[in-house]
Write a structure and sequence with these properties.
about 220 residues, globular
Length: about 220
């Protein structure tokens, strides 16, 4: 029980960092593609308060998957709305994969240290190790989760480039119901098996890449 609560505690800063980078990535890429909406609203920031959604944050801490307050974008500023919307949407999951790799690198570095005594330095390093493990797992889960090709997730905006506009907006009408269904599936652990399988495969791939560096063998 103590270990579970400690992991939950470490999940809080990991989640706050993850949602801030994820949403800022959307806003920054949209800005670089010509849309100043997110910048004008102060959403290109690592301040988690700007991106905080209570229900999404609770799901993130408890289930490792969740969401933040979406960064507003205006596709009318884009030169190629479909393509640029897909690029903007992809920026969030890609930022999560980058953060996951940083997490894997972090716990691999911490794993290089060995201690003979359980002193203060040991507990500090072990806490950092656990934080990086949680950080990596959470970000991989977020990347996978947000690539689901259904609204309101980023994957639906990426998938939009392949769908007729009429079909896309027809699906978007059911965004709220799809969100409720996904939360229910999370609560019932229905998504655990595919999420754990994909997450494990991605993290194993990142560990394999790091093991190409002699110090991590």
């Amino acid at each position: 029980m103590k270990e579970y609560l400690f992991n939950i505690l470490l999940s809080v800063p990991a989640a706050l960092i993850s949602i801030s980078v994820h949403e800022s990535a959307h806003g920054y890429v949209s800005y670089k593609l010509g849309d100043p909406t997110a910048r004008n609203l102060g959403r290109i920031t690592l301040n988690p308060v700007k991106h905080f959604d209570l229900l999404g944050f609770i799901c993130m801490v408890l289930f490792r998957v969740g969401w933040a307050k979406p960064v507003p974008v205006n596709s009318r500023y884009y030169k190629n709305p479909r393509r640029d919307m897909a690029i903007t949407a992809a920026a969030g999951p890609l930022s999560n994969l980058l953060m996951a790799f940083i997490g894997v690198l972090g716990y691999e570095i911490m794993g290089l240290f060995s201690f003979r005594e359980a002193n203060a330095v040991f507990y500090f390093c072990y806490t950092l190790y656990l934080f990086f493990v949680i950080f990596a797992q959470l970000n991989v889960f977020l990347a996978i989760f947000n690539l689901l090709p259904v609204p309101p997730f980023d994957g639906s905006r990426i998938f939009y480039i392949f769908l007729p506009e009429k079909w896309y907006f027809g699906i978007m009408k059911y965004e709220r119901y799809i969100m409720i269904a996904v939360i229910l599936l999370l609560y019932l652990d229905v998504l655990d098996l595919p999420l754990n399988f994909l997450s494990g495969a991605i993290i194993s791939g990142m560990e394999w890449l790091l093991e190409l560096i002699p110090i991590f063998k």
